[in-house]
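Troubleshooting log. The previous structure file for this entry was overwritten by mistake, so regenerating from the original sequence record. Sequence copied from the archived sheet and checked twice against the printout by T.R.
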Amino acid sequence: MSTAAPSGPEPVDADRLDRGFFARPVLEVAPDLLGCVVVRRDAQGTVAVRLTEVEAYAGQDDPGSHAYRGPTPRTAVMFGPAGHVYVYLSYGMHWCANLVCGQQGSASAVLLRAGQVVDGLDLARSRRPTARRDVDLARGPARLAAALGLHGGESGLDACAPGAALQVLRGRSVDPAAVRTGPRVGVSGPGGDGGLHPWRYWVDGEATVSAYRPATRRRAAQTSSRRSGRLDPGRRPVR
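Regenerated output below.
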């Protein structure tokens, strides 16, 4: 495992993305987030992750979204102003983080899927002790949230507020020719669930991009659930 931290400028509040950046259609915001840097500051220190992979979720117009059936206490933040953070628990085990986009009430959001730790490498390693390589520290949405030290208590944070505990900064620009698109990970389809939407965006050639896995067929998942006597937690892996 490498011991040298990646070089890069210190995060500066002046580089913070403002609400206008996020208050746009989610399919515009998502690819524009590639190369941006998510900075998380807490009592343990600072960790910064440069985004290399994201996914777009279009709220009540998207059967793959947590917001598809309308607001709930958990998803209320998604229906609020853009630029806030939505954190949810996946499969009852792992926290994942999203950034709310679009106009208030649209409930669209971008899932932060993967990135490269560019500041706070030692702290990120301590939070991800099972990572065998530094490229794996934030390679996947749950790993990224863990490296940043995010949990459910951060859901609702305003990432656009000055001095916020989580901010998104302008990073180095990504060549549009290097941006790739494809179906979202674990979202079923094409039977109305948006599985074929090419709403996952990533930077070609980046080692930190996560592996693509299609959704498990619903019939097989339901059969497995009946055999185990449990409801299938992955029946609709929404964001």
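Strands lie at 37-42, 45-57, 85-90, 94-101, 108-119, 166-169, 179-182, 200-203. Archived copy saved in two places this time.
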